[in-house]
Specification:
This protein is α+β, with helices and mostly antiparallel strands. It is 39% helix and 8% strand. The chain has helices at residues 8-15, 32-35, 53-68, 72-83, 89-98, 101-107, 114-122, 156-162, 199-206; strands at 126-128, 131-132, 145-148, 173-176, 181-184. Strands 2-1-3-5-4 form a five-stranded antiparallel beta sheet, with helices on one face. A hairpin with a 2-residue loop joins strand 1 and strand 2. The chain is globular, with a radius of gyration of 18 Å. 31% of the residues are buried.
Length: 208
């Protein structure tokens, strides 16, 4: 399976905003974007020029794709699903991205980053309604319950999770740290996305 191997912090600097790709480092003074807010590369500072409408749309699409850790084909497939749903396409897209199993695990504080959550899911540590699911892109539905499988409870990482996380859990999730369970009590809304994004520009980009 294809994957990105470049430095994660370069992506944040390229998009000019925190995408929270490095876990707790993103919340500290070690964040690369705080130290060097210019785009990466030798000519990073000289890139600070007015972009075309297409360039702005592209950057919003890349920002969302990189934040959720999707390749172009995966992201376009998710967008196509959003266009077939009732409602506003941009909001449908964000809802589908937020409802990915790896994102749910991350937003609940069970992983330090979305990449870490994806690894945990791939390794089979989670159950959805009692059934093992090891597909990060699995779409969680309302009222479904995500739990850590019993034999994974004694792993050092999940012992730390039971001690509690300082991350703010979105209102559409209910977390029981002691039982290592996540209850999806509602569907995510537009305001629940944890970084700045103009989803209408993504729709415009694919509608060209």
């Amino acid at each position: 399976m294809a994957r990105y191997t470049s430095a994660a912090c370069r992506k944040c600097r390229r998009e000019g905003t925190k995408l929270f790709l490095k876990g707790e480092k993103c919340y500290s003074q070690k964040c690369a974007l705080s130290k060097r807010p210019t785009p990466p590369g030798q000519h990073g500072q000289s890139r600070q020029r007015k972009m075309s409408e297409y360039g702005l749309q592209l950057r919003e699409k890349q920002k969302a794709r990189r934040a959720y850790g999707l390749l172009e084909t995966q992201f376009k497939r998710t967008y196509n699903r959003a266009t077939k749903m009732k409602g506003v396409t941009g909001e449908n897209l964000l809802q589908l991205l937020e409802r990915r199993l790896d994102n749910v695990v991350y937003r609940a504080g069970f992983a330090t980053s979305r990449a870490h959550a994806r690894q945990l899911v791939n390794h089979g540590h989670f159950l959805v309604d009692g059934e093992k699911v090891d597909i990060p892109s699995f779409t969680i539905r309302e009222n479904q319950v995500v739990t850590v499988r019993k034999r994974s409870h004694n792993l050092e990482h999940f012992k730390i999770v039971r001690e509690g996380s300082s991350r703010i859990v979105p209102k559409w999730l209910s977390v029981d740290a002691d039982k290592l369970s996540i209850n999806v009590i509602a569907l995510p809304e537009r305001d629940d996305v944890d970084f700045s994004l103009q989803e209408n520009m993504i729709v415009e980009f694919y509608s060209r």
